[in-house]
Design goal:
mainly alpha, single chain, 12 helices, 289 residues, MetI-like fold
Length: 289
C-alpha cells in the first residue's frame, strides 16, 4: 500500500503585520502633520521650495529673544522643580510625620490640573489687584502694590515650578522607596552625619530619578504655553507664544511653521540628550554592580 504524504503548508510570517497598524496610526497622527508643517516652512509664496522664509524668520531679533527666553525660563523652572522636588522627596521619605502620605498625594494632584489654573490662581494671589497686594495696600496705606514680580519672567518661572514639581517628585519618591533603610542605619551607626549620608547614600541612588524628572520638566517647560499666556508677563515671549502670535494674531502661517519646526527640533534634541545621558549612567551603574 502506497503511503500518502501531505506536503507541509507554507508558514506565513505574520508577526511583521502587527507593526503596520501602529506605524500607520503614527504616520497619520504625528508624522504627516509634522511633514506638512516642515513643508510649509520651506515653501515660498510661489509654491516652490525656498529657504528665504526660514532665513528671514531665524535672523530676526524677535526670534532670538523668544528662543533665549524659552531656554532661560525652561532651565530656571526645571532647576527649581528638581531642587524643590528633591527637598520634598527627602522630607516625605526620610523624615516621617503624620499625614506625610496625604501630603504627597495632594502634591501629586497638580499633575491632573490644567496649567492655566495655577497661573490664574497666582493672578488672584499675587496680581496687582490680588489678595496679597490689596491686603498690604489697605493695611499699610501704600500708594502702589508692593508685590510686582508676577508680571515678569520670574513670575512665569514660579508658576511653572508650582505646576511641574510633581513630575520631578514622583520618580524621586519611587527611587527613595527602593533604598534599604539598613544602609542608612549602618552609616549612622558608624558616625556618618546626615549631610554625609545624604551625599554618599541618598543622592547617588536618586541620580537616575533626578535626571528623569529634570529632563521631563525641561521638555514640558520648553513647550509650555498656557502659563506664559495667562501670566501675561511684559516682554516675555517664548517660542510657543511666538507660534501663537504668528498664526492666530498675525495670520503669518509660514513664519509660525518655521518657529514650530525649531521648537520641535529643540524638544527632540533635549529628549535625545536625555536618553544618551541616562544610558551612559545606567551602563556605569551596571558595570559597578
Amino acid at each position: 500500500m502506497a503511503e500518502t504524504t501531505t506536503a507541509p503548508r507554507p508558514v506565513v510570517a505574520t508577526h511583521g503585520l502587527w507593526v503596520v497598524l501602529p506605524f500607520a496610526i503614527l504616520c497619520a497622527a504625528f508624522l504627516y502633520p509634522l511633514f506638512l508643517i516642515a513643508l510649509q516652512a520651506v515653501t515660498g509664496p510661489d509654491g516652490a521650495l525656498s529657504l528665504a522664509q526660514p532665513l528671514r524668520v531665524l535672523t530676526t531679533p524677535a526670534f532670538w529673544r523668544a528662543f533665549l527666553n524659552t531656554i532661560e525660563i525652561a532651565v530656571s523652572a526645571s532647576a527649581g522643580c528638581v531642587g524643590l522636588g528633591l527637598g520634598l522627596a527627602i522630607l516625605l521619605s526620610f523624615v516621617p510625620f503624620p499625614g506625610s502620605r496625604t501630603a504627597a498625594r495632594l502634591i501629586e494632584t497638580f499633575v491632573a490640573l490644567p496649567t492655566f489654573l495655577v497661573a490664574l490662581a497666582f493672578t488672584f494671589l499675587y496680581g496687582s489687584a490680588g489678595i496679597l497686594n490689596e491686603t498690604a495696600t489697605t493695611a499699610l496705606g501704600l500708594a502702589h502694590p508692593p508685590v510686582d514680580f508676577l508680571y515678569s519672567r520670574w513670575g512665569v518661572v514660579l508658576a511653572e515650578v508650582t505646576v511641574y514639581t510633581p513630575f520631578a517628585l514622583r520618580p524621586l519618591l519611587a527611587a527613595f522607596s527602593l533604598i534599604d533603610a539598613a544602609q542608612i542605619e549602618v552609616a549612622s551607626s558608624l558616625g556618618a552625619k546626615p549631610l554625609r549620608i545624604l551625599r554618599q547614600v541618598i543622592l547617588p541612588a536618586a541620580l537616575p530619578a533626578l535626571l528623569a524628572g529634570g529632563s521631563l520638566c525641561l521638555l514640558l517647560t520648553v513647550n509650555e504655553f498656557g502659563v506664559v499666556l495667562f501670566i501675561g508677563a511684559k516682554g516675555v515671549i517664548t517660542l510657543p507664544l511666538m507660534i501663537y502670535d504668528k498664526a492666530i494674531q498675525e495670520f503669518d502661517y509660514p513664519s509660525a511653521c518655521v518657529v514650530a519646526v525649531v521648537n520641535v527640533a529643540l524638544s527632540l534634541g533635549l529628549f535625545s540628550a536625555y536618553r544618551l545621558i541616562v544610558a551612559r549612567i545606567g551602563g556605569r551603574h551596571a558595570g559597578v554592580v
